[in-house]
Amino acid sequence: MFTRYTAGLAALLFVSAAPFAQAADKPTDPQIAHIAYTAGVLDIEAAKLAIKTSKNKEVIAFAKDMERDHEAVNKQALDLVKKLKVKPEDNATSQALSKAAEEERAKLAKLKGAAFDKAYIENEVAYHKQVNGALETLLIPSASNAELKSLLETGLKIFQGHEQHAEHVAGMLK
Amino acid sequence: MIHPSRLAALALMLTAAPAAAATIEVTIDKLVFSPATVEAKVGDTIEWVNKDVIAHTATVKGGWEVMIPPKKAASLTLKAAGAVDYFCRFHPNMKGHVNVAP
What we know:
Largest interface: A-B, 17 and 14 residues
Mean pLDDT of chain A: 89
Radius of gyration of chain B: 17 Å
Helix content of chain A: over 70%
Number of strands of chain A: 0
Strand content of chain B: over 45%
Largest sheet of chain A: none
Number of helices of chain B: 1
Order of helices and strands of chain A: HHHHHH
Largest sheet of chain B: 4 strands, mixed
Low-confidence stretches of chain A: 1-15
Structural class of chain A: mainly alpha
Oligomer: heterodimer
């Protein structure tokens, strides 16, 4: 039982770390901006799917919170890159994130009811953990522009709140 | 020119003022309630000023809840004495505390 759990956890960690593991090099500010924006868009897309699919009041409320917060943060990000005259640059990390999210959405699209709710919320916990880890260890330390760094730091606080919120909803679904 | 008796009345009103309810401001900036702990009394109003671009709440589990829209303020008049912990329902990592004296 324990071995199976550990093996499962190891597999999960491996999958979760994958998109960021490819970015062994320090990303540049235009790449960081692109990664942060992409991560937000992907969570908004997942939220839209949940709002459409779920019948659970708590899950729908959570998804609406995700949609609203990530849209607000992404608007800030767009305003900042415009102000700094930075052109967000597509990169391997953004592409890996998008690919992983696309696969997750395809998986979720086949589910209904309680199975969907559970899978969506568990993925939200894992996704926010993964993105927050990347912000803390890679994106924030790599950012060279002070305003970009500050926006990422605020984003991290917001998304840590989302992670706790998702864990709370996951606990209620059990 | 204000008549001296008027002035006396005004002074009386002013000295009486501290007994009246106060408004206590709590600022929200980058997901932090500041000050985190507020000392108040029944009848006082807490006004939360949200400087963030995202919405927050001040929520007491099983108690009151105040919605605080982005870049806006919202307030609550305290009706019961006691000490309560509150948090933001959307971002549970945001925490605050209110001590309400009778």
